[in-house]
């Protein structure tokens, strides 16, 4: 008979792998948020010769806010990844709504600024 050493992590391997997939999805989402903000800002300043000062300000706000939200999302997702790993091993897992609420509110605010930006660009 083979002598196999089991760890607490291997006992809950499916849950840990699901936790890792969730973490990687949050990382991809964070990178996408930062990329969209960078893209909007770059497109605004490289293609539009707008005479509207507020559109320049809004483009900068969109870019900076997107980067900030992306960085905070990475920090929160990393923290919750390790927290969930520990709770899985202790069999005390509880749903954490902090990251979902933060990302939802932050994205709604960014989209509101996007809307104002597009209204300024289109002249409404």
From TrEMBL:
It is a multi-pass membrane protein. GO terms for cellular component: plasma membrane. Its main location: membrane. It is found in: Cell membrane. The keyword Membrane applies. Residues 15-86 form the DUF202 domain. The chain crosses the membrane at residues 21-41, 61-82, 94-119. Keywords: Cell membrane, Membrane, Transmembrane, Transmembrane helix. This is DUF202 domain-containing protein. InterPro entries: DUF202, IM_YidH-like. It comes from Heyndrickxia ginsengihumi.
């Amino acid at each position: 008979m083979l002598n196999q050493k089991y760890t607490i992590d291997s006992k809950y391997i499916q849950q840990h792998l699901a936790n890792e997939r969730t973490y990687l999805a949050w990382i991809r989402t964070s990178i996408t948020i930062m990329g969209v903000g960078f893209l909007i800002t770059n497109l605004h300043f490289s293609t539009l010769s707008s005479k509207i000062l507020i559109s320049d300000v809004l483009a900068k706000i969109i870019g900076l806010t997107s980067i900030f939200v992306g960085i905070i999302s990475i920090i929160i997702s990393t923290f919750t990844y390790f927290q969930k790993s520990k709770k899985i091993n202790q069999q005390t897992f509880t749903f954490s709504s902090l990251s979902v609420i933060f990302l939802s509110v932050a994205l709604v605010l960014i989209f509101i600024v996007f809307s104002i930006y597009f209204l300024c660009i289109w002249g409404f």
